[in-house]
Structures are given as C-alpha cells and as structure tokens.
Input
Amino acid sequence: MGSKRLARLTAACALVCSSQLVAAPPLTAPAWNDLTPDQQRTLSPLAREWRDLPDERKRKWAGIADRFPGYTPEEQSRLQRRMETWFSLTPEQRTVARDQYRNLQRIPPEQREALRQKWITYQELPSEEKQRFNEAAKKPAAKPAIPKIGAPPIKPLSAPPPPRPAKPKIIVKTPPPAEAAQLPAPVSTLPAPTAAQATSPMIEPVIALPPSPAKP
Amino acid sequence: MPRGRTAVSMLLVVVAALGVGYLGELQRTADLEEVDSALLADDLPIDAYLDSGFDAWVQNDSPD
Output
C-alpha cells in the first residue's frame, strides 16, 4: 500500500522535474555550429571570438539573438554594430554600463527621449566640468555605503577603545558631493551648522553605538 | 520500508536543490540578456553608459 503510494509520488515528481528540464533551455553552451542560421546571422560580428567565449556568455548571446527579431531594423543595426565594442569591454565596464543603464531607465519617459540630446550637450561640456561630474558620481557610490549601512555596525567592531572625543567625531560628512559638486556653489555642505547638525543627525548613531563602558 | 522512504526523500531534496540552482542560473542569464540587448539597441551609445559623469549630470539636470 504505502510503497505503491510512494512509487506513485516518486513517479509524479520525476515527471514534473523532467518536464521542466525539457521545457527549459539546456545549460550547455552552444557551439557556433549548434546555432540556428538566424542566430548565426545575428551574431556574425562575434563569429571569430565565439569559440573563446565562456559558456555563460555564449548562452547569453544566443538568447540575445533570439530576442533580436523583436527590435526595429534601426535597433537591430545598432545592436549588431555595438556587439564587438561590448565584447571588448572589461567585466567591470560592462557592469558599470548596465548599472548606468538601469539608473537612466528610472528617468520619466518624456525626459528619457531627450537623453540623446543631453548626451550631445554633455559631450560639449568643458572637460573640467565633466571631470567634476565624474568625481561627484564616484563619491556617492562609496559614501552612502559607509555612513548609512556601514557606520553603525562597523564602528563598534573595528574601533577598540573609542575614547569618545569631546568634539563630535563628525564623520566628515562631505558626502553630499553629488549635489554639492554639481551645483556651482550655493548648497554648501555642512560648514555653518556643523555643531548643531552634527550633534543631532549624524553623531547620534556613532556615539550611541560605542556607548559607555557598561560592561559587567 | 522506512529506509526506502528516506532515500526517496533525500533524492527529492537533491533534485529540488538542483532544480532551484538551475532555474536561478536561467534567470540570471535571462536578466543579462534583457539588459544587454536593450542597452546595445538603445538610442544612446555605449559610451554614454560608461561615463558615470553623464548619469550624475543628467540627474542634476532633470529635477526641473
């Protein structure tokens, strides 16, 4: 009785699993000759490098080739033209590009349409100006990770004897950099309200963590 | 009988774990496909997405 039920259950599971695995694409990477003629045509810019591509990227490119017909002719031509450039980027650069792409996708559609024009305008900016934006873009990436998430837990762990300075150990929150750097001058960081600001919003978490030596 | 049951359960767990890993991998590849193909076909050149200053500039420029 029980064994029959068990056997039936096992068979059912095996059936479900096998049907899912059959329905899903294989995890093996396709060789160039395994690609369909359409895929080969789409991926022709990568034909020479195909053999050396890691499996994961082969699968990805094969998938891109499958999506290819869904694009307009203009987009298709752009996609193919850029394949080699994309291929030549480092993994880090590709990650940066993807992140930026996702960021810029958050812009409202009506403004996104103007991005092309903005890119042209941006390119015409003096190189110093562009450099400023570049640096501003780098800072916030490092800062928020420290003050928002890192600061509270890291302080107690890494700082062994926090002597609790009389002056607030203001974690030089110069990080409103993106905005501060971008806007010419007005929005000054936190120069004037140092004492006041420091005591309330920033220091609290820092000081509160390594409180007093209330150890048993 | 209980031994057989345990073996089958373990087998199912292993199969399930493999299935989850496999589906996760598929999902990851599908995400990359989606972003990469959209990015490459996009109106903006790749350079625009490599220049982090551009994003900062756009974000600064768009508040209005």
